[in-house]
Amino acid sequence: MSNNINANNLNTDSSSSPVNVPKMDALIIPVTMEVPCDSRGQRMWWAFLASSMVTFFGGLFIILLWRTLKYLWTVCCHCGVKNKEAQKINGGGDTQADGACKPTDEKEENVAAEVGWMTSVKDWAGVMISAQTLTGRVLVVLVFALSIGALVIYFIDSSNPIESCQNFYKDFTLQIDMAFNVFFLLYFGLRFIAANDKLWFWLEVNSVVDFFTVPPVFVSVYLNRSWLGLRFLRALRLIQFSEILQFLNILKTSNSIKLVNLCSIFISTWLTAAGFIHLVENSGDPWENFQNNQQLTYWECVYLLMVTMSTVGYGDVYAKTTLGRLFMVFFILGGLAMFARYVPEIAALILNRKKYGGTFNSTRGRKHIVVCGHITLESVSNFLKDFLHKDRDDVNVEIVFLHNISPNLELEALFKRHFTQVEFYQGSVLNPHDLARVKIESADACLILANKYCADPDAEDASNIMRVISIKNYHPKIRIITQMLQYHNKAHLLNIPSWNWKEGDDAICLAELKLGFIAQSCLAPGLSTMLANLFSMRSFIKIEEDTWQKYYLEGVANEMYTEYLSSAFVGLSFPAVCELVFAKLKLLMIAIEYKSEKRESRSRKRILINPGNHVKIQEGTLGFFIASDAKEVKRAFFYCKACHDDITDPKRIKKCGCKRLEDEQPSTLSPKKKQRNGGMRNSPNSSPKLMRHDPLLIPGNEQIDNMDANVKKYDSTGMFHWCPAKDIEKVILTRSEAAMTVLSGHVVVCIFGDVKSALIGLRNLVMPLRASNFHYHELKHIVFVGSLEYLRREWETLHNFPKVSILPGTPLSRADLRAVNINLCDMCVILSANQNNIDDASLQDKECILASLNIKSMQFDDSIGVLQANSQGFTPPGMDRSSPDNSPVHGLLRQPSITTGANIPIITELVNDSNVQFLDQDDDDDPDTELYLTQPFACGTAFAVSVLDSLMSATYFNDNILTLIRTLVTGGATPELEALIAEENALRGGYSTPQTLANRDRCRVAQLALYDGPFADLGDGGCYGDLFCKALKTYNMLCFGIYRLRDAHLSTPSQCTKRYVITNPPYEFELVPTDLIFCLMQFDHNAGQSRASLSHSSHSSYSSSKKSSSVHSIPSTANRPNRTKTRDSREKQNATRMNRMGQEKKWFTDEPDNAYPRNIQIKPMSTHMANQINQYKSTSSLIPPIREVEDEC
């Protein structure tokens, strides 16, 4: 105390008398700018350092001593316990021994009580410093904040000398620093109490920081002297910065946590090292009596450390002291490694974070969708090309792509070209934080793209299903449209509770639609191309030359749209409206959304495809149109009979005054919904589905009682033909058996696959060919040619379909192809299950291309065809020879024989679009030509799964489009059927009830020939519009396209039999006799009934000579008499009931045993007409020209 008093007095004297200053300078050690606080000029840095060292080593010694004593005590007590247990086991021990043990027991109880008290205190301390509680989080954040405050005070004091005299009561910064350190001391005590291992706690970084920063503050108060010392160690607290931000829920992503960790470690190490250099360089070496010091500011030391770490070393600032240079030697090793590792990683994280991080900011009044899944240059470009097509109305929708991999340069350039409507964010839909970043809760929909070319389709579907689960879990109400590769995986979506197809959720199964398109091409060649072009957005390409491309491209420009019908059409029948719209508005309407007038189904809206005259247009009816752009379709909404009846130019049909008056009146109709909602989502209970065009009345109870309950011919929904499960061995044909079986008019499916190949899902190919709107005798026999091992794996889903055979072999074997009479088939389908197992894209289709070229190069003898032609006359394609002459539908025999494989109708599936150039050797398609512009695609002989990409955007803008396409393509698959297949993975047979039989009464796509029949007069130079109106009025058939010979426009005859598709020709389009017309044909009840009556009289002759694809299994006649008697009695009973019920209450089946007679008068065929048919040569499977029905009783 006396020294301090003397020092104070000395300072006071020196400050008051300037004469004494030189005397004081003589007492101060040279080259130091510090003012000593005593007359001897001694430095007191050792006192500050000693306080820290004594605290550290003293505490360490106490901890080690305590552990040693505790260990010895434990060993001694352990021996005593063992002796006591031994005495208890031996049963010995006298009274003195018992008395001696009592004090020991009491001591143990006291120790236990003491341990319990100490444990409670320890738990309390742990809770106080734990970040799991609010108090702990506040305390941790407060300690960190005060540590940063103490570091700031160090930065301020670093401008002062290393050791200086400061009065605690007058120095404000010293008082604040003292308060901070008192708090640190209390927090240190809590940490010490809560620590399980006191030794490791004593050696922690934070503890060492406290040892060398807290005690010197108390020493400075005692000595009235300040030493800058090791206070720079507070910078090490910055390492905990990321933990603090995590406690506050500021950091949530791994990248942000990693970035903050790297930055905090780098900065804390940098500042701490700079503080040490500042200390030793400003103090000097102790063994040099502090004479070699240099004056450096703290920030100059920070600069020195940075240039040292970066290995630049300008030399303007360097260490002069030995301690400083020794430190720099070791720091260069660690600092250089840290700099080289941390700085590039920090830069990469910052750059990536700025580029594809952040949060999507939605624009007010503008919707946005989220697209995720398989994001590549090909998938994104195909999606954007269709989604942002100019033919759509103004697409006021922002597209947000979310993917966990940053885009490459090409994809990034694509995003930049569409930067006004497209944004990309890096993340995963499986992460809720990323879903929040893209505002999934406010998105209009979420679209999930699939990798169509993956090697494992089931794994890809599983990934997309997990994405659906994650998105639905985050926001159950979001509308999701996802692509699926395999049909059987759609069932897993039904397990998601919030998945609801009624609210707009849709799964676009690529295998289902791809094989469905191919199946429809077996029934109507070229249909796959027409439908693919209808739901794809194509720009109009005008060609002046009179070539087949000119007419094809005019049809390609048509797409499918929806629009609400004007009130001027209310009360008119569908055929009348359809004719008026086509003739006057130049639009083609193929279906409507209809609200039933029945009380039990008023809330259910149904899609009716080409319904009959009984359907009247209601107010607010939504129509499905084929047109070139959305603006043309608005004519149907603006049409007014009073204002537009006399207008001949459809472009002048615009909104009139009458329409404005209607709009001013309150109405629930909103034309703005026509593109996006498509009318289906107006009601949450709406369920679009196909409805039959002419509802049959339900028979009475007596009819139901007499129904043959022991026969199941259809599945439980009545949508498909069904038979009991057959063993695969019963349908296998050997090559010799197939050769002896005269197959014709059948479908040959050439398939490549093996045991390891992924399943294609052949059920989706067979189901449309077994739709119940075909009569049984109209079903084409299906013959699979391929690996038996692969077909065994597919057979479980095929064993319930009739008329299916298997020829084990390979499609590359000409012997196998000749055995199945490929030259007499109606269609040859070439598929491969090995396409996605090849890395080289150009080789993915090698098997299909080789098989196609192999078939086209085959040559055939025409003796079989001539023999059949002479014995049979003509046969309706796809029908048995027993088809009656008085059927309302007749067909033409295909070319009696095909002598070259180039004339065999083939459709080949391709994976790589560019490989289409190898299918036709006689075309001039450029390899860079888009698929839809190539000749094989235009002719319907090639199909690629890439054309289905357009369905994603088409479904988003109008969810009814997918229902319509699926109904036309799959033969009638419904959500109810999908739920049934999800339960049993197979079709279930059902009894024929009026409800299920009514499901047969639905439209199907067919082809109509113009060479003969009621339309022959229009086939030679007639107008397509006249044909359209006549077919619609007379036969309720809706025409929508032409399948024309490629060289029909040439004036010279051509031997080419290739045809191409013309979609929705204009009214004045000129027809040629060889044209085939695509039409929506109504279900024909008469075909099955007439076949029944004919089978009684000519069954024996028919069985021996029929040109049928099903002659492999000739029906047995052993029990025919009993069946005939039963049938006769049943027919008599039902005839009586039907006379009583009246003409309208009729229901029919296609089997002869269950058919009811109908009196139909058909105009007979003339001899001239029969000769003309036999002379005509055609290579396509046709739907026969229609004969008019003069009278129907």
Q: What do the pLDDT scores average to?
A: 76
* Class per helix and strand makeup: alpha/beta
CATH superfamily of the domain at 725-949: NAD(P)-binding Rossmann-like Domain
Termini separation (Å)? 133 Å
Highest CATH level, the class of the domain at 725-949: Alpha Beta
Strand content: 5-15%
Please tally the β strands and state the result. Answer: 26
The poorly predicted ranges are 1-35, 93-104, 599-603, 664-709, 865-896, 1090-1193
Separate helix tally? 44
Overall 3D geometry? elongated
* CATH topology-level fold name of the domain at 725-949: Rossmann fold
> Based on the structure given, which CATH architecture of the domain at 725-949 is correct?
3-Layer(aba) Sandwich
Binned, the helix content reads 40-55%
The Rg value, from CA coordinates, equals: 45 Å
The neighbouring-strand order within the major sheet is 5-4-3-6-7-8
Biggest sheet descriptor: 6 strands, parallel
Helices and strands, with pairings:
Elements: H1 2-16, H2 21-27, H3 45-90, H4 95-129, H5 134-157, E1 163-165, H6 172-194, H7 198-202, H8 205-211, H9 214-223, E2 225-227, H10 241-247, H11 254-283, H12 298-309, H13 322-356, E3 367-373, H14 377-387, E4 397-403, H15 409-417, E5 422-426, H16 432-437, E6 445-449, H17 457-474, E7 480-484, H18 490-493, E8 506-509, H19 510-523, H20 527-534, H21 548-556, E9 559-564, H22 574-584, E10 588-595, E11 605-609, E12 622-627, H23 630-633, H24 635-638, H25 641-644, H26 657-664, H27 673-676, H28 701-705, E13 714-715, H29 735-740, E14 747-752, H30 763-769, E15 782-786, H31 788-795, E16 804-808, H32 814-819, E17 827-832, H33 846-856, H34 863-872, E18 906-910, H35 935-938, E19 942-944, H36 950-957, H37 959-970, H38 975-984, E20 989-990, H39 994-998, E21 1004-1009, H40 1016-1019, H41 1024-1035, E22 1038-1045, E23 1059-1063, E24 1076-1081, H42 1085-1105, H43 1120-1141, E25 1160-1162, H44 1167-1175, E26 1189-1192
Helix pairs in contact: 3-9, 4-6, 5-6, 11-12, 11-13, 14-36, 19-20, 19-30, 22-41, 36-37
InterPro entries: Ion_trans_dom (IPR005821), K_chnl_BK_asu (IPR003929), K_chnl_Slo-like (IPR047871), NAD(P)-bd_dom_sf (IPR036291), RCK_N (IPR003148), Slowpoke-like_C (IPR048735)
Subcellular location: Cell membrane
Biased composition (Low complexity): 1091-1116
